[in-house]
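Just scan this pair:

***
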Amino acid sequence: MCIWLIATLCTFLACDHDKNTAQANDQNQAAKTESHAPLSFPADTGPPPTFDGDRAMQYVKDIVAFGPRPIGSPNHKKVEDYIISHIKGDVVDHDVFTADTPEGKFPVHNIIAKFPGTKDGIIVVASHYDTNYPLRNTSFIGANDGASSSALLLEIANQLHGKPRDGYPVWLVWDDAEEAIKPDTEMPFLDDSLYGIRHLAEKWQADGTSKKIKAFLLADMIGDADLDIERETNSTAWLESVVFEAATRLGFQSHFFAREGAVSDDHLPFLKIGVPSADIIDIDYGYNNVFHHTTQDTVDKLSPKSIEISGKVILETMRILDKMDPLPPK
């Protein structure tokens, strides 16, 4: 998670990732999608998606009960095993490698659960699951930052288990080593972060998988009891519009896009290789972002309803994408 920009006020607020906004914009300018003609959405038919917010919240509680989970720690391995235990029986790939970081070499483990569909293509939904490395010796447990979105993916998996989709296959990605190793005061965030998702994007670009991906949906910090999802301006514009259409159809539009800003997050490596991507994130966590990357990021700040809203909107976004034919060009 990173810096965000309030375009309407022409000011910016920095979270404790003190990232260079100009650098982020320069690096991502080529990846941004130009405006397209107004989208034509399919008819709104069928029942709304199912998502159990209470069950997802229990997953959050289970994850944070392990304690801080920075890469290379025993707790990190426990969370890996916890996630894998919930998707056994599904098709699961493991992207395992060693990251060379400013603090040495660390094992990194991206977990990918694959659910079949009838259409040619892939929708990817992702979340990181590690916690902030510089805070590893504190009680920081990342209830919202990492646990809420990881739990959301586990509940989406529940909705997909054994149910071949009449649409695109869905791949759920729990990506690793998203957090920076050094504090931002010592090293720019984009030079020292996103290790897992960058490796996966490079791997899928090399083997041709990235050409099959129709949309990359990132969930991050979606459990805040006061849910207010950004219109994230680094994201692909038409895909953000699909997300808002999904929220509107479900009656959740008041929780989406009241503000906008640019966020440097796990979607950037996929934007860089030309994959339409959207970051579904509420970066303003507590008044003036006071809870973000602090030991106050605890379960009592979250709401199962917020996770449910986010999960249902992602599922509805997937359903709209299934029926949009053709999708806008990449």
